[in-house]
Amino acid sequence: MMSSEITNQNPVISLKGVNKWYGDFQALKDINLEINAKEKIVICGPSGSGKSTLIRCLNRLEAHQDGQIHVTGIELHETMKDIDIVRQDIGMVFQGFNLFPHLTVLENCMAGPNWVRGIDESEAKERAMSLLKQVKIPEQADKYPEQLSGGQQQRVAIARSLCMQPKVMLFDEPTSALDPEMVSEVLDTMVELAKSGMTMICVTHEMGFAKQVADRIIFMDEGEIVEENTPEEFFNNPQNVRTKTFLDQILS
Amino acid sequence: MFVDTVVEDKALHKPAFLIGLSVAVLAFFFAFNFTNTIFGEFLSPVIGNPEESGLFGRFVVSFVLSVIFVLNLLAISFARLKIQILIVWFELFLLFLAFAYSFDLKLSFIQSRIGLMISKGLFTTIYISAVSIVIATAIAIVGAIAKLSNNGFAYAIASFYTSLFRGLPLLLQVYLIYKGLPQLGFMVDAIPSGIAALSLCYGAYMTEIFRAGIQSIPKGQWEASRALGFKSGLILRKIILPQSIPIIVPPTGNQFIAMLKDSSLVSVLGIWELMYLAKTLGQRDFRHMEMLLTAAMIYWGLTIILEMIQARIERKYQQKT
Q: Is the pLDDT score of A1 beyond 70?
């Protein structure tokens, strides 16, 4: 495919001078960022810092008003015709899971491949089952989402996204809505995914996860990228005062 | 209402309440003089000729009635909930029968006409209502989507439509369609005009029900579908509408029951449905009450059946989700 050739040479995602406002409030300020294939990025920052807004702009669940966002070589803008084609290649995992409650776990995973990609049912089912095995809940395939625990639901949500065979996975605070004892099962799944070479962008407060898998950590505050560094440098030698304050609060 | 785990004392078992109630009931029966009814006749061994019994007779009758009434309440209050409900239903039904009986109905008259009421009247009523509810549902889906769309034309047309048809009395709509369309050159029969009026009116109400049902689905469902690359039509069809159905079904069932009864308004067009037959069949023989009560019982029976069907459907959806 054309786009995959492009991604080998160019960044999978690039943002140039991106600004976004909600009314008078500026949510994103002059964001410049390039993310290459197979990179793992963790975005952190205090609440209201714009990190969720940023990640939601990458599949245009939110619109940016200024600057350019390119995803898999395609620019995202208001009048584009093929946003659904771009979105098919970008998986997204939400804080609130957002599984389809009227469909079984298996049907949740088959929905994208079958209805959107047009893959026939038996193949979609096979793929769904293999991904449910990968997230370690194949035995729940015929249950409805509400019958599962939060951790299991989030793993289903990850499997549902992976069924589309995306090039990039976005995680928007995937463990924030979970009971404490369920956080690790979801993080383990994400670590596995990282090892498999997936390009991942994760908004999270889980600093242990960040240390373990991130190639780069991006710290945001008040809508701007304050600091961008490797995990070692970020935790051991933070440059900005705001980063230091944040780390003190979150690690104490 | 959600029942507490602590049981309160029954009001009926408190002496003060019981005495107060007895006095009130006695006052009621005394105020609405029952001496010249069947009860007075029944008590004539005590009070003599009811016509001449005066205040004494009036007091005895109301006293006996209120004792029976209060004892009945007390007796029922000791029964289990389900038995209570059954007994009270049964007693109220008996009262209704007594009300009907008091008109000195001629049963043979009902017998001779009921065949036509059912084969023609009931059939037409169900036919008109069923066709109208199907059309109204189709209108409602389109209307709801139009009202939620960003398309200015669609929104304007849909909101004008709901505003107009919710704003006019149904009877007026029936007349406007039946008498108005021919003046524009469209000849329409009575039944199609009746169906059109019912569908348009209830379609407008149901548009609002469907719109609210669609809007009640959390926006996370839209976002998750979009993130997977679903197009809008697919999201509506596969994700949003299936989830709205359990929310939409109960109020839609109510609309259907209401429509069944409102279909009586098309009788003004001379359609031979239940209401029209009820009005006309008794006219020649001055047996209005017979036919009106028969129609009443048929409507009532029909809505009871529909309510039972509705309860079943609701239960089915509750199990699934």
A: no
CA atoms of B53 and B39, how far apart (whole Å):
13
Cα–Cα distance measured from residue A165 to residue B246, given in angstroms and rounded to the nearest whole number: 33
Structure tokens at B233: 């039509």
d(CA B211, CA B145): 7
Question: Do A88 and B221 count as a contact with CB atoms less than 8 A apart?
Answer: no
Q: What is the pTM of this model?
A: 0.81
As assigned by CATH, the class of the B107-320 domain is mainly alpha
3-state SS assignment for residue B144? helix
pLDDT in tens, A38-73: 999 999 999 999 999 999 999 999 999 999 999 999
Query: Residue A165: left (phi > 0), alpha (psi -120 to 50), or beta?
Result: left
- Whole-angstrom Cα distance, residue A94 to residue A170? 9
DSSP readout, chain A? -HHHHHHHHS-SEEEEEEEEEETTEEEEEEEEEEE-TT-EEEEE-STTSSHHHHHHHTTTSS--SEEEEEETTEE--TT-S-HHHHHHTEEEE-TT----TTS-HHHHHHHIIIIIS---HHHHHHHHHHHHHHTT-GGGTTS-GGGS-HHHHHHHHHHHHHTT--SEEEEESTTTTS-GGGHHHHHHHHHHHHHTT-EEEEE---HHHHHHH-SEEEEEETTEEEEEE-HHHHHHS--SHHHHHHHHHHH-
Residue given tokens 């190639």 in the structure block? A215
Residue A7: per-residue pLDDT: 44
Residue ranges of domains in chain B? 11-101, 107-320
Q: What are the tokens at B25?
A: 């009931």
ipTM of the complex: 0.92
Q: How far apart (Å, rounded) are the C-alpha atoms in residues B67 and B23? A: 10
- Residue A101 tokens read as 């409650």
Beta strand A216-221 pairing with A13-22:
unpaired
Q: Per CB distance under 8 Å, which residues of A are interface residues toward B?
A: 59, 61, 84-85, 87-88, 90-92, 94, 96, 98-102, 111-112, 115-116, 144, 146, 157, 160-161, 164
Q: Each residue of B255-301: pLDDT tens digit?
A: 999 999 999 999 999 899 999 999 998 888 888 888 999 999 999 99
CA-based nearest residue to A161, from A73, A69, A98:
A98
Select from A98, A127, A147, A164 the residue whose CB has the most chain B CBs within 10 Å, as the one to mutate to test that interface: A98
The distance between the two most distant Cα atoms of chain A, rounded to a whole number of Å, is 55
Assigned token pair, B242:
């299936």
The reply to whether residue A99 touches residue B239, judged by beta carbons under 8 angstroms, is no
Mode of pairing for the β-strands spanning A13-22 and A66-71: antiparallel
pLDDT at A4: 44
- C-alpha A147/C-alpha B27 separation (Å) is 59
Residues 6+ apart with CB under 8 A from A247: A235, A238
Residues of A in contact with B229 (CB under 8 A): 84-85, 87-88, 112, 116, 164
Cα angle value A186/A187/A189 (rounded, 5°) = 65
Residues A132, A156: contact at Cβ < 8 Å?
Answer: yes
Q: Do A94 and B230 touch (CB under 8 A)?
A: no
